[in-house]
Write a structure and sequence with these properties.
By secondary structure, the protein is α/β, with parallel strands linked by helices. Helices cover about 25% and strands about 25% of the residues. The strands form 3 sheets. The chain has a 6-stranded mixed β-sheet with strand order 4-5-6-7-9-8, covered by helices on one side. The protein has a 5-stranded mixed β-sheet with strand order 3-2-1-12-13, with no helix packed on it. It has a two-stranded antiparallel ribbon with strand order 10-11. A hairpin with a 2-residue loop joins strand 4 and strand 5. Helix 2 runs parallel beside helix 3. It is globular. The mean pLDDT is about 95.
Length: about 250
């Protein structure tokens, strides 16, 4: 069994209030009697992509368990690599593969520099295909990126979702080892399906999206930050629980 926590849309902006919300979530995870095997951060780590925002993120995002990150549309790839990963600045997609408890977690970059909608670049799709091919047979895979690949029934969000979902669906066809797809970007917890698999969307830490049937406003700031807990069992079945952190 693998226990993962997923958080998303932190939007570090240099303020103490934003850092406090993220710190509250990390403190909650650190205080649990059973530690998670890893935390996935599915994008929009910074608010504007400024170096100071990644410096703040690097200071707060520390723990005894692994913290795996990927960029979102608010992130700057070069500054993300330099400020958070400690790598040389580069502009290409930041894709990373991790092996946690026998599970491959593929963190893909769906960001498009200067744009809000997402796209899995040809380079990323090729990397994903090669990485899946190289994994030992029977290795379960969780695929994570920022932009949801399906309609989530909010007009603003749906206008800036992943632009090329069919290319990904075609790549995943015949690959049952990919158990589920995990995304962020929505600022609201959601569950759907994609390419015959569970699609699980993490809630936001920075603020929560109000849905059209809940009222006229878009941003619901009083809502607390929240976490998605993913349990991947020995039968490679994913179960997700959501928890608000008051």
């Amino acid at each position: 069994m693998v226990l993962l926590a997923q958080i998303s849309d932190l939007h570090f902006d240099g303020t103490a209030a934003t850092a406090e919300r993220v710190s509250r979530v990390l403190d909650y995870l650190k205080a649990m009697p059973t530690p998670v095997d890893a935390v996935l951060v599915t994008g929009d780590i910074a608010d504007t992509g400024a170096p100071a925002e990644y410096a703040q993120a690097a200071q707060v995002l520390t723990a005894d368990f692994p913290i795996l990150t990927l960029p979102g549309n608010h992130d700057d790839r070069a500054e993300y690599r330099r400020g958070l990963l400690g790598e040389p600045a580069a502009d290409g997609p930041a894709n990373r593969a991790h092996l946690i408890g026998g599970t491959a977690i593929l963190m893909c970059d769906s960001s498009v520099p200067g744009q809000s909608p997402g796209r899995l670049a040809a380079e990323t799709l090729a990397w994903l295909a090669e990485t899946l091919e190289a994994l030992p047979a029977g290795t379960p895979v969780l695929l994570a990126f920022h932009h949801p690949p399906v309609v989530l029934h909010h007009p603003i969000l749906d206008a800036i979702r992943l632009e090329n979902p069919q290319e990904l669906a075609d790549l995943l066809d015949g690959r049952p080892e990919v158990v589920a797809v995990l995304t962020g970007h929505a600022h609201t917890a959601a569950v759907s399906t994609f390419a015959g698999r569970p699609l699980v969307v993490a809630p936001g830490v920075y603020w929560t999206l109000q849905l059209p049937w809940e009222g006229d406003k878009v941003v619901d700031r009083p809502q607390p930050p929240a976490i998605a807990f993913h349990v991947l069992d020995d039968e490679h079945r994913l179960t997700t629980h959501y928890r608000a952190v008051l």
